Task: inverse folding
């Protein structure tokens, strides 16, 4: 629904990374990330918050639920952190490789 039905351009590249539903099923924390550098995390969360009534209505209709959990959106920065760690590991490997090449006699 987020990617295909909402017409808000701030939500265009959003990805749901995780959903955690409370034991009593009253709350669902939806973790999201996005790849649009022109939209801040704050703008993204604000857009999702404004779309919450529509999303809850669609969930109720499509899933046949009488009580739909309150949707709470949180930004998940773990993809960015993982990319940073991956980049650091690549740099370390490149430095080790360059150091190994320099130490090898010709």
Result:
């Amino acid at each position: 629904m987020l990617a295909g039905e909402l017409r808000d351009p701030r939500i265009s590249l959003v990805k749901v990374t995780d959903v955690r539903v409370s034991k009593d099923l009253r709350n669902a924390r939806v973790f999201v990330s996005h790849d649009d550098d022109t939209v801040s995390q704050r703008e993204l969360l604000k857009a999702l918050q404004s779309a919450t009534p529509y999303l809850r209505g669609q969930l109720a209709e499509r899933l046949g639920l009488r009580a739909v959990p309150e949707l709470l959106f949180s930004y998940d920065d773990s993809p960015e952190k993982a990319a940073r760690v991956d980049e650091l590991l690549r740099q370390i490997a490149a430095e080790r490789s360059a150091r190994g090449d320099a130490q090898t006699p010709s």
User: Anything to note?
Assistant: DSSP finds two helices and three strands in the chain. Strands lie at 14-21, 27-34, 70-75. The CA atoms of residues 12 and 34 lie 8 Å apart. The chain has two domains: 1-75, 77-106.
